[in-house]
Every structure is written in structure tokens, then in C-alpha cells.
Design a protein that fits this description.
The complex is a heterodimer of chains A (315) and B (305).
Chain A (H helix, E strand, L loop, with lengths): L19 H40 L20 H8 L1 H32 L7 H9 L6 H11 L6 H8 L11 H29 L3 H9 L4 H29 L3 H6 L11 H10 L3 H26 L4
Helix pairs in contact in A: 1-12, 2-12, 3-7, 3-9, 4-7, 7-9, 9-12, 11-12
Chain B lengths: L18 H15 L3 H28 L3 H4 L14 H9 L2 H32 L5 H10 L5 H14 L6 H5 L6 H11 L4 H9 L4 H12 L1 H17 L2 H6 L8 H11 L5 H35 L1
Classes of the chains: A mainly alpha (315), B mainly alpha (305).
Amino acid sequence: MALRTDAPPAPGGPATRGCRPESARRRRRGYAAWGFALPFTVLFAVFMILPVGASLYMAFTDMRGADLRSPLAVNFIGLDNFVAAVTDPQFQQAAGNTVYFVGVAMPLTLGIALLLAALLNSGLTWFRSVFRVGFYAPVVTSIVAVAVVWRFLLQPDFGLINSALGLVGIDGPDWLTDPTWAMPSLIMLAVWRNVGFSMVILLAGLQGIPKDLYEAASLDGAGAVRTFRSVTVPLLRPTLLFCAVMTGIAYLQFFEEPFVMTQGGPLGATNSVAYEIYNQFGFGDYGLSAAMSYLLFVAIAILSFLQFRLLRPKN
Amino acid sequence: MTTTPLPPATTSAAPGTDTATESGQRTRGDRRRLFTPRALLLNGALLVGLVASLGPLVWMVLSSVKPESEIRQFPPTLIPQDVTLENYTQLFDRLNFPQFFFNSVVVALAVTVGAVLFSAMVGYALAKIDFPGRRALFLLIMATLMVPGTITFVPLFVLVANLDLVNTYAALILPFLAAPFGVFLMRQFMLDIPDELLDAARVDGAGEFRTFFRIVLPQTGPALATLGILTFLGSWNNFLWPLVAVQSADMYTLPVALALYSTGQNTVQYGLLLAGATVIVTPILVVFLVLQRRIIQGIATTGIK
């Protein structure tokens, strides 16, 4: 306790002793705090805040690849990029594809994840941790690597999936080159890879539901379905919301799957908004690309907001 | 009760009035319930799911040691008839995979160490020190928590180009050292460190930095490990930014190399691609299997928090 005096010796008489060292210590702690925060804050400002702001700036300019070294010497063109994006049939198709992908893959992912979590939480499973690890393993894999594997699995002539379908007399389609089947193939891959993430979180959420609520429900004579709807789902809402938001954000940006498996084809059937942003960037249309990325950002924000409205806990 | 490892969390009912005698019966009952028709059906369904989940990965490894002719055989052979490592030797001789592997390791390690340290530092300041600007900084970080890479990569590329960092490790590393999610995670964990512990250190004359490295960091070991693993996984699998930021082949990371190679060839050599995929996926799967408890718990708690 006596060591507190090793703060800088307060100048002035004993009258100020109570107040000056206190403020000096506060100031010193403030410096220390900013010292801790400095490395992060500098990098954060340069590599996050600046690009987010610059993205908005670029969206309103005619910046192209040639302006790379002089990003400030470009013309403001108002909303032209946004208009060009929304009226471009290719972007419209990409937007439609993205909605299709999210609209099908997200409910599928969450539904299967919830089913698996409920099964694992039933207390009847033989090797729960084996199942849990097995279902989670695809989550840690690189999308690029597993997209290569799935391209091989879906190969029409000697791929495993069509070979298996052949055994039961079904003539499997040319998955990735058929405009009808290409998107379902990508959805299959996405669901396969992402179910484990939501399942693990939902399982933890299920385990957090007090057991006596279930006992009370069974005393009241509620069946399994009724219990699930009246006890499980309401208490799981916040967890479900988290999974829905995370999955929605990831799926709205889907890019690697079409990049590796279909290059957006056939006939643009698997082109996504994120892929279109990448393509416009590749063509050197930086302004247009930035405008499209802001549209995607708005879509992400809207989807997250809707999910919050839909799944927020009811009082 | 102690000898039943099967349902770990489900039987953790509070030691109430009636558990003393009933819990023994309940576990015995549980064991019998594990072989009712309902349990058999349920486990059967889970097994089908497990095969679907792990099947593609097993198939990847098995096929990667088949020669190209066997890979293209119909019907496919389940077990490789003619085991060969040719796909791997080709991968390493012709495609410079050791270089890509090295790049991936360097980038992932640097990002992990840097991001975890910086996140812990700023997380500590935000959780435990009252300083001017604290609230504003925290809100700003939270606001960017959900900004996806798809939004920032174009201006980020312009920035990196003007800093003359294209085709450097710095371009692959620096943008990921400022990780809002890591800050959020560290702050949440550091809020739980008792203030008395920190006060005691200060009373003993330890400065803020000493307190941080001697007291705070050891206290947050599990959180640091969780964040470290998640950061490493994210960096190892990262694709869009390395694809944009690096244009010369000697700087490619593994996913970029595999993606460009797989889309760039005219006749697909599946053996090579599968060997490449195996090289990317296997180290991560091994890390995952060793640390699975920590990874899964980490994911689960971040979801619940």
C-alpha cells in the first residue's frame, strides 16, 4: 500500500495530495490503455475503416483499373454505377441466383442442423462425441479443396454420386453442366459444409434448456411434437437467430463454390453477386464493382434485420 | 453415476431432493433405452448422416492415391487397387506445392500470433481500463463486426497497390491483424477477470504492461487458444483476398494455387487435384481432431454469448 507513492511525486503542498495524484494516475492509465489499443487501432483504421469509407466513395465515381495509382483523380458520376448495376441483366441474374441459393440453402442448413442437434440431445445416442466431431469436420475444410472434391463426386460419367444412382437404376444428370442441376449441386455442397457449425451451436443451446421444463411438459401430458414447439423452439430462439444471421451473411456472399466448380456457368446459372463483383473488378470497373458490393452490403443488412424481427425473443 | 460416460451433459441435473436414489435407476434405464427400436432408428439416421458428412473426405484421400486411369474407371473402385503416390510426387515436383504450402504456413502463423496478441491487448483495455474514447472505440469495432470481405476487397486492393505491397506477405497478413471478432471475444472473456486480482497487482507496484503480461494473459489462456485456433483456420482457408492481392505464382497460398490450377487446365487431371485438396485439408483435419473439444466448445460458447 505504501508503494502507491511511487507515482510521480506530486508537486505542490500537502493540500493537493488527495486530488493531483489521482488525476495523474488516471491520465497515466489513459495513456497505458491507448498504448494497448494502439497497434490494433492503427491497423483497424487503415485496413477496415478506410476501405469501408473508400468503397462508398468509389461507388459514386467512374474509377477504373487505370486510375489505380491516382484514386483521387476520378469523376463523380452520381448514381450511375448503381443504375448500371441494377439494369444489367447479368447482375439481375446473379442477384436472382443468390436469392435462390440463400432461400434454399439456408432453411435446409438450419433445418438439418436442428434435426441433428435434437437427435444428439435426445440422450439415446451411442457415440455422441464421435457424431459431433464427424458432423463438424467439413466446417474446418477449405471450400476450394472441398469444391474440387465435390466436382469429382459429381462428375457425370465416373463420379461416385452418379455411380451410386446407377446402382439403383437412376440415370444421374450432368450435375454441373446442366443449368437446372448446377445450382442444386452447389447448394448440396454448401449444406454439407455448413451444417456442422449451426449444429454445434444449436446443440449447446439445447443443452442450456433446463431439464425440469421438459419434465413439467411431460407431466402436463404434452407429446414430443408439442414439447418441441412449446418448450424447445421458444427457448432456442436466440441461438437460432445467431445461426440464421451467421449463415445468411456467409451464404449471401457465396463465391468459392461457383468459382471452382462452374465458373458461374452454365449460361450464368450459378453466377452470384459476389462472383459478379469479382468479375467487374477483374474487368477493371472498380466503381461499378464497389457499387455492387454496397448493394450486397445493404442486402446483408436487410436480411439480418428481418431475421432479428422474425426470431427475436417474444416477451 | 461416475462410470457412465455416455450422456455427459444431460444427466447434470441439480442435486435435488430425489436424485440420490433415482439417478442410479435413471442411468440404468438410460442404458436400456439405448437399444429400444426408437434408439436404433435414431442412431441409424445419425450414422447415415455421418457417412454423408465424412464420406467425401474419405473418398478424397482414397482417390488421391489411385492412378488417373483407375480414377476414371466405371464403376469406381472403393478401395484403391493400385496404390500410387504419383499424384503427390507430381504435385510437389511440377507445381511447386512446397512453396505454396510454405506461404500458407507463414501467413497463417503470422496472422494468428499478431491478431491474437493485438486483440487481447485492445480487449483488455476495453474490458478493464476506463479511458477517454473507450466507448467510441468499442462501438466502432462492433459496427464493423459484420462487414464482410466482399465489401472491402476492391478499395483494399487500391490501398495495397498504392502502398506497393502487392505480391508481398505483408499484403496477405496486415489486413487480418485487425480482427473485430477477436476483440469482441477477448473483451467478453476479460470482463470475467476479477478486478481484485488486477488491483492487487497494481498495489504491488506492477505497471499496466507488466500486469497485462504476467496476470491477464495467463488468466485468459483458454480464450487465447480458442481465438488462435479459429484465426488459424480462417487464415488457412482464406481465398478471396489472397486471390486478389497476389498475382505472381511464387506468392500463391494453397487454396489460390489449387483453385487457379483446377480452373486453368483443359483436361482435368483429377488425381492431381485430389492430391492437392488432400494436402490442404489434412493438416487442418489433424489439428481439428487433436483440439476438437476446444474448437467445438469455443464455437458453441461464442454462439451462446
